[in-house]
Structures are given as structure tokens and as C-alpha cells.
Design brief:
TIM Barrel, 292 residues
Length: 292
Amino acid sequence: MTKLQQALQSGDFVVTGEIGPPKGTNMDTCMHEADLIKDRVVAINVTDNQSSVMHLGSIAVCARLVQDGYEPIFQLTCRDRNRLALESDILSAYTMGVRNMLSLTGDHNSAGDHPESMPVFDLDSVSLLHTIGVLMGGKDLSGEELDGTPTDIFAGAVVAPGIDPVEAQLYKMEAKVAAGAKFFQTQAIYDPAVFEKFMKQASQFGVPVLAGIVLIKSAGMARFMNGNVPGVFVPDHMIKALSAAKRKARPAKSVELMAEFINEIKPMCQGLHVMAMGWEKYVPGLLDACDL
């Protein structure tokens, strides 16, 4: 049983973090980012060609994290691989000691740095969860027996509480639970009222939910997210506060704003997923401010 699984099943309030692989082979920066948060999180997500931008493979960074004593969460997107490659990567990651896996459909290729590439989407996030379950049963998707079975994968999925109408997200969430999702990490959320409304309905599925936040570095970043990331809305009072803060004071103001939000939503969920995006050094202070 992974530390993440044990903590969630014990009912603990769980904090996870996230790092992105490099665009190249030098892992120094991402490993330094992992080191900055390792003592404050239970597990660390490793993104998979996030936003359709080419990076070193998530599987390689996960293997390095395991080697160095961290607990990774292997993100798998369906955009770039067919079912053959996805099954192979799941088994490969398992042999490297990776046990936590997060299923995502993935952003379309047109959003990234290789817009001319061909999208795959042979599976989606629900059928990928089903695939993990099939592999854990000792067979592949063609029904062939496996020589060695990955019996203890802890599979999770994502959900977007801010999408309107939320009913579509709840429908997908129910399907993901039925397909084998044991925990959820949410898309970035900043409105306690929206999150509370979502959680009142999502609680029916009985699966732990970790609320996602992206540390907001500036008012410009907040406006960009509002205009370009479906389901994400940074409230005006946060944007105004960041606009008024001088450049050197922005990290402290961001931590203050995020801490206020986290303290409001802590009673609503079972954890927090912090996406620092290069601001990992501020994560310990943020968690201290929330008594986490």
C-alpha cells in the first residue's frame, strides 16, 4: 500500500505536490523542486507533456523519484498514446516501483508546441482507468494473460469543480469511480462557494477529493487563467490584491490569499493538491499558514 493510499484510507488530510519534467534531459531543476516540497507532501505528481508541450517523459522522472526515495504519482494522458503504449507504460512504470497513477484524457495537440502532431485519444480517462483494472486482473485488453501482474496500483483521476454546468463533471466523476478511480485531484479552484456546492454533490461517491490550487504569481497570470483555462475563475478581489502588491511583495501576497482560501475549504474535502509551477520554495510557508 502506498503512503498516499494509506493516508487517504486513514482519513488524514492529505497534501500532494506537482513537478514538471524538463524540456530536455537535465533533471536538476525538477529534482530540486521535488526536494523543496518532499517533507511537506505525501506524494508528488509528475506531469505528462502538460498543456500539450513536449517534455521529458513522466515515467523517467517518476523512476528517478522512486530511486531517490520520493513517492511519485505517474500522470498518464491519452492524447499521445494508443492502448498498446498506455498498457506498456503502466507495466513499465510498475516495474520501476511506481504505484500511484493518475488518469487524464489530455489537452488537444493544437494547444501546445507541436500543433501539427496527430492526436491519438484511442482511450479516454475513463477507459484508461478500466485498463488499469484489467491489467491488475492479470490480463491485457486483448484478453492475453500477463506474466506478472501489477496487483497494487492506486489509481486516481481528475475533476473540474468550476465547470458550468457542474452536472457533466459529476457524471464523469461517477463513471470514473465505477471504472476504478480511488481518489480525485481537482483542477485549480479559487471560489469557496463554488467548491462547496460541488463537494455537496460529489460526496455521494465516497471517494477522497483533493482540492487543486495553482499558486498565482501575478494579476496578469490570474487574468490569463480566467480567459484561457475553462472552469478556472480567480475572483476579482484576488486579482486586485495582486495588482496592488509591488513586485517583491507578490509572493507573500499570493501565499496570504491562497492560505485564506485553503482555510475556508479545508473542512469540505480530504486534501489539497498544490501546483506551485516554479514557486515550490513558497509551499512550506503556505502550508504553515494553513496549519498543514
